[in-house]
Design goal:
This protein is of the alpha+beta class and 432 residues long. It contains 13 helices and 23 strands. Helix 2 crosses helix 9. Bound molecules: glycyl-adenosine-5'-phosphate. The site of glycyl-adenosine-5'-phosphate (GAP) has 19 residues, from strand 10, strand 13, strand 16 and helix 9.
């Protein structure tokens, strides 16, 4: 793994200072690897989830949505193989007690102190808790480590109620939990995170075709939300890297300041999950294909993205330092605030005029209004949080009813009539 060039520290500090991301429970010293999204972070996250949801369920017409519960029948996790197989190899240093994933380190002895390491033992990543008042084995339930299983156990419900024919998909966004041995790199690897998963059900003979399709579609999506194409690549899994459920897998990776890392996995899960659920539940998981006149258990091509990781890639990709300013070159589609409205000075009717423009815009476009301080400082503030446009009301506005529109990236300014500014912005933001 490459050493960070300092960008991560600067980004973490900016995120806290400007209200993107805070350490969870900070007043108590924080809790390791848990984070809270602040006022800007929550808007960014919502934009990313909406862009994903729209790409899956609006831009195409072969995918249904679903929102399933985090707690599921414990048999789900036995059947899926997670109780048995969702483990990482854990080693401890006998001297300094540091803990590692043994596949993360390439030394025989502790990387920190050189001490002797214990034999690797399997550590299950699922969080356990108890359902009901009695803390006994019979009441153990798990916090889901992936949202996918909620989709599989509802496959027949969706086929029957949405009257879908194969091929079709089911999409879900939701929290997942993993008791990671080594969380880290800010929101890259945490113990609570959000997944955006889609399971696409296909005829077993068409799995490779659809795997190719989804690989390409998902790669394009990251370009569409503004990530630098040169920092994206595929990583095909070799046989010994494959998860217990997969026949083939490809990761979409992004080059973070700390190296190339997985953003999303596209997996061919075959009929593994549905067959196992059918065998264990004694409920039919097969599908009757009218066009073929035959019944089969479909294969599943899964696209599994991490929402928080996508956010981190978007933020690191956008972060830029110039001599005079720090600028977040966020794609307008993900930017938390799309436009800021400023009166040049806080008098001569300018605040009233600016406020009116703000009130008109904010119902359709996320807008920020700011009167305080020198105009240059106000622009810099918006540059640092990634607001792509700023509108300024100045003395000319009071004469001819035009305003300046300033571009974050080029810092160029253009004048537009007040009564046209909303349409101009809608055009630039590609809003309907
Ligand atoms: N349903 C398949 C599945 O969960 P995965 O490769 O284990 O596959 C999918 O996880 C995605 O979830 C990853 O590519 C990553 O973006 C995200 N993810 C997994 N573990 C994570 C963690 N501890 N913190 C943040 N994101 C995580």
């Amino acid at each position: 793994m490459k050493k960070s060039d300092g960008t991560m520290d600067k980004l973490v500090s900016l995120c806290k200072r400007r209200g993107y991301i805070f350490q969870s429970s900070e007043i108590y010293g924080g809790i390791n690897s848990c984070y809270d999204y602040g006022p800007l972070g929550v808007e960014l996250k919502r934009n990313i989830k909406d862009l994903w949801w729209n790409a899956m369920t609006r831009d195409r017409d072969d995918i249904e949505g679903l929102d399933t519960s985090i707690l599921m029948h414990p048999k789900v996790w036995h059947t899926s193989g997670h109780v048995e197989g969702f483990t990482d190899p854990l080693v401890d240093c006998k001297k300094c007690k540091s803990r590692y994933r043994s596949d993360d380190i390439d030394t025989e002895a502790c990387p920190k102190c050189g001490g002797e390491l214990t034999e690797a033992r399997k550590f299950n990543l699922m969080f356990k808790t108890f359902m009901g008042p009695v803390e006994e084995d019979a009441s153990i339930v798990y916090l889901r480590p992936e949202t996918a299983q909620g989709i599989y156990v509802n496959f027949v419900n969706v086929v029957n109620t949405a009257r879908r024919k194969i091929p079709f998909g089911i999409a879900q966004i939701g929290k997942a939990f993993r008791n990671e041995i080594t969380p880290g790199n800010f929101i890259f690897r945490t113990r609570e995170f959000e997944q955006m998963e889609m399971q696409y059900f296909v005829h077993p003979s068409e799995d490779e075709k659809w795997m190719e399709h989804w690989k390409e579609e998902r790669f394009k999506w990251y370009e569409k939300i503004g990530l630098n194409k040169n920092k994206l690549r595929f990583h095909e899994h070799s046989k010994d890297e494959l998860a217990h459920y997969a026949k083939a897998a490809v990761d979409i990776e992004y080059e973070f300041p700390f190296g190339w890392q997985e953003l999303e996995g596209v997996h061919n899960r075959t009929d593994f999950d549905l067959s196992r659920h059918q065998a264990e539940s004694n409920k039919k998981m097969s599908y009757f294909d009218e066009s073929l006149g035959s019944r089969y258990i479909p294969y599943i091509i899964e696209t599994s993205a991490g929402c928080d990781r996508t956010i981190l890639s978007v933020l690191t990709d956008a972060y830029d330092e110039e001599e005079e300013r720090v600028v977040m070159r966020l794609n307008p589609s993900v930017a938390p605030i799309k436009v800021a409205v400023f009166p040049l000075v806080n008098k001569d009717g300018m605040p009233e005029k600016a406020r009116k423009i703000y009130d008109d815009l904010r119902k359709n476009i996320k807008t920020f209004y700011d009167t305080g301080g020198a105009i240059g400082r106000r622009y810099r503030r918006q540059d640092e949080i990634g607001t792509p446009f700023a509108i300024t009301v100045d003395s000319d506005t009071m004469e001819d009813d035009t305003v300046t529109l300033r571009y974050r990236d080029s810092m160029k300014q253009e004048r537009y009539p007040v009564d046209n500014i909303k349409n101009v912005l809608k055009d630039k933001l590609e809003l309907k």
